[in-house]
Amino acid sequence: MSAKKLLILNQQQIQQKIDRIAYQILEDNFDEEEILIAGILPRGNRIAERLKKILDEIAPFKSRLLTIELDKQSSTLKAKIDFDVNDCRDKAVILVDDVLNSGKTLAYGFGVFIDVRLKKLRTVVLVDRNHKNFPMTTDYAGVALSTVLKERVDVSLIENDAEDAVYLI
């Protein structure tokens, strides 16, 4: 039995959502000297890269890309990071992922920064599914979807100008 795919966002719509989120981040952080954009691998990091590129063009502040790799199957926080978490002290951090489903991934992402005093921590997702098991909210979301639990959201973000899409399966 083949899975039925429903297109939720096409490439142009994804870009519009990311552009809008970048402007919202700019408005929220206009008085900052630097913000840190922490992308959760793999697709959250791709969105973070795109946000950074836009912010580098429009924002007066500097932005720095951080990468977080999480073991999403673990029942405890297991993360690999490409930065010294103490460098985040007293800075604005934007945590980025592709889909907010149960909230577990964002909760683990928060855990990376738990021992460091941040100026602020904001969250970005391209799709918020509204099925949270953890008390997670997003500060910036491309689209919010009310789905049934058995449905899945598939985000395809291909680099090198290939076709991007978000499907409900």
TrEMBL record:
InterPro entries linked: PRTase-like, PRTase_dom, PyrR_bifunctional
Keywords: Glycosyltransferase, Transferase
Signal sequence region: none
Top-rank taxon, per record: Bacteria
Domain spans labelled Phosphoribosyltransferase: 8-136
SUPFAM superfamilies per the UniProt record, alphabetical: PRTase-like
A Gene Ontology molecular function term of the record: glycosyltransferase activity
Protein name: Pyrimidine operon attenuation protein / uracil phosphoribosyltransferase
Organism: Mucilaginibacter mallensis
Taxonomic lineage: Bacteria, Pseudomonadati, Bacteroidota, Sphingobacteriia, Sphingobacteriales
